[in-house]
Amino acid sequence: MLPFDPFRFGRFHNKQSHDYSKKDVENPQPGSFGKLPELWEEDDHDHSAKKPKPANGILFPTTEFDQQQEPVKDFHNLDALFHDTTPPFRSYQMQELADIESQYTELITPNPHPKMTETPEAVGGRKLSTDGVIRLGAERFVQSRSSTMNDVTMPSHPYGASFSGISDREAKDVELIENLLLSAEKVEQRQFERSSKLLDWCDGLSYSLGNPIQRLVHYFSKALREKITRETGRMSVHGSAKKQLSEMEGKMTTPNPTIISIYQKLPFFQAGQFSAVQALVDGLPGATKVHVIDLSIKNGVQITILMQALLSQTNCPIEHLRVTAIGANSKYKQNLELTGERLKSFAESLNLSFSFNVVMVEDMLEFKEDHLELDPEEALGVYSEYGLWGMLAQEGRLESLMKVLKNANPRVMVVSEAAANLNSPNFVDRFTEALFFYGAFFDSLDDCMDREDENRAVTESMYLAHGIWSHVAADGPERVIRHVNINVWRKFFARFGMKEMELSMSSLYQAKLMAEKVCCGSSCTFEMDGNCLILGWKGSPIQCLSAWKFS
Predict the structure, then answer these.
(1) Where is this region: SAW (predicted)?
(2) What's the CATH number where 390 sits?
(3) Is the pLDDT of residue 211 over 90?
(4) Is residue 415 located within the same domain as residue 430?
(5) Do 280 and 306 meet the contact criterion of CB atoms below 8 Å apart?
């Protein structure tokens, strides 16, 4: 692979310096979830004393790669996006895969037993994980509503429903979860005054820069207060949900320090992306001309991985790669075009023939097969990384998209979506599911990033908080963020004659390998649900990865 030229790539746009205080993060302006400027300069202080970093941002095991690359210290150089986040992609021969299978048989064996939700303390004893705190708090909540123990529907927790055997801090966290759930129940019962009093208590013990439970409760409490405001007919301080989602989409389509930092430090993102790309390559065997339709290209890191994956194949050298990026917001067309320019530069550095096209429609109902300019000589694949959930709240859009893709007849469609069922019409059920799902994210951020990390604060106050707000405070069309689990997707895809494909051992190993190379990767868990790979954090499902073909 050719060495990277740091001057080949452009620079971030509107590069500017910003100073942030705790007040900026804790008390964002009304109408925004921690809406901070997109970019800031790294200062000269060392914030990484607790968690040392290798020179290249992520330490990859390939000695040859380390010798080829120059350290990248400026994360505002676009080199940081492609260089630091994409190690060379390795393909595997049959004997290697046989050895891999013997080492990682747990990856392909469904695990019927749930993961334990406790982690060892540094010095003896046991310590509740974030999931364990939520589970115990939820169990206490259920028991408080039940007249007999026979009514309890949640699995029994090792500590029981009492505070025996846990620290005072953990006991307070459990109480926080219990009272937060009680408040949600009072909202559903339209007992808003009682709910508000419970939230007052929660707010006194939660904190946006505290431990994972305190942070989690802080944002869920804010969302519950917003729901009370809406239910009582008062003026909401937040703008349109669709507008906020559009703004988030714009940020996701431009490389920025927060996105890069999260991608580098949370192991399940890299693990899922490398595994998904391998599944895409596996679905296009023997192809020398490849056309990939990307339904959510964002900043395009996955395409750089795909380029390296295709070039690593020795049995069928790639002649040309064409990528079509689909967008449904013309406001960000320029962002996608800039992504294309960066990808073209990256392809040139690899001496890869590459072309890029943007298909922009204002409404997915307008998307037609003619937009794709299909070539019968090209092997067609579809890649969707969190590209479908946004259409769940838009009547007919997802169905219309799938009809077009079915007519295009791709060899494979790779789908990565959230492994959560956050679309229940029952408010308390949806609230509880969201609490567990986002609890895993807050826990992973706590393990993988410093508590004062600005990128962590932005992730929590902007991206995660907006998701929480959508699940908790919004209803109807305003609830624009919706997630469903793999079983729901299976039923939906079956309507279009799609059949789930088995993920290869190489695809599974890519996930395992990448998790091992990232700090905290040992907490990244893998389980199989049929042919679907479930990536999780300490056993809590985060992402589901599956591959499909049209029959």
Answers:
(1) 473-549
(2) 3.40.50.150
(3) yes
(4) no
(5) yes
